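Usage

Read records sequentially. Each one opens with the input sequence:
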Amino acid sequence: MGPVQGENGGSEAGRQLLSIGAVLGVLRDEFPEVTISKIRFLEAERLVEPQRTPSGYRKFSREDVTRLAYVLRMQRDHYLPLRVIREHLDAMDAGEEPPVLPGAEQPAIGAPVLADQVARDAVLPGPRLGRAELLAAAGVAEQQLADWESYGLVAATADGGFDPEMLQVARLVAELGRFGLEPRHLRAVKAAADREVGLVEQVVAPLRRHRNPQTRAHAAALARELATLSVRLHAALVQAGLRAQPGL
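and closes with the structure output:
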């Protein structure tokens, strides 16, 4: 894309273009967790190509904003990696139908739906919860929470609060408990999760130590994408294992 008019300049098209700050304001209505670093990262991944003024400022069209919203929505709602989202965008740019989204087809009756459940269980960033808030939101007693903490399934932050992911963990542990699975039975699941965290950390640690803030932002986005792929792989492996069991 070629350069456009200056910050205050000229053409009707130029006046309709948005700065990166204005784009952030538009997107945050639906995606409150989005940051300027995230937008720059998506640009670096060539998922959007804003125009540039002669002085180097990014200028986004309304189509660019729509494209960014599509990328963020596919990540949030469908856990799609950027590679797959790029395939969707390329198809739409060519006037073709994008690939079918995961879970778009109805599964056979009785078939495992673990991958779909993973997507539904996705936790969006939110405010940290106090202990009483977590207990109330999860519908559990203090003794249950203390038991889960002793097994490392639920953990508070340094200030005693709980990140939103811990609420989802508490709800899932409680749900598994209804099937007779106690915290001691879930130690293997926690150990597997810790190993996956370690694997992601091996990949992104060099980027996190980089001096360039854009590179560090890339590390955070890459960590989230790797975590998503890891969870999807885990769900697929469990589903495949269940299919291999007689009568399941």
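Summary fields computed downstream for this record:
- The first strand starts at residue 51 and ends at 52.
- The chain has two domains: 12-93, 114-243.
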